[in-house]
Amino acid sequence: MSLREWARSIKREIHAVYLATRDPRVPWYAKALGICVTAYALSPIDLIPDFIPILGYLDDLIIVPLGVWLVVMMIPANVMTEYRVIAATAAERPVSKVSAVAIVTLWVILAAAIAWLALEYWRAR
Questions:
Q1: Are residues 59 and 34 in the same domain?
Q2: Half-sphere exposure of 89 toward its Cβ, with a 13 Å CA cutoff?
Q3: What would the pLDDT profile of 41-72 be if each residue is shown by its tens digit?
Q4: pTM exceeding 0.70
Q5: Of 15, 60, 90, 101, which sees the most CB atoms within 10 A?
Q6: Are 84 and 16 within 8 A, CB to CB?
């Protein structure tokens, strides 16, 4: 399996885990961890920033696949198989650029609000 194929399979697994977290057959602890892993994998903010040589990509290469593997082990096999098929079908559809813009916009608004609050805090001192 090439690196590109491996990355695509991890992406499909993340999508399948996200879908499975919404299923009532999945235990609550698997849902909680699944939401955390999915949010971390899809978030543009990393534990170790990507601009740090070698270590920056280490979290993407180790933490995300390890988290996905752990969540998959907690989800019943029949449920995971069902959502893998759905995720594979969804991967064949075109990507929504509107969703990407919405997520980036939310992060920019959040960053601006934090910067504004910090500035107001420092002015009040």
A1: yes
A2: 7
A3: 887 777 777 777 777 777 778 888 999 999 99
A4: no
A5: 15
A6: yes
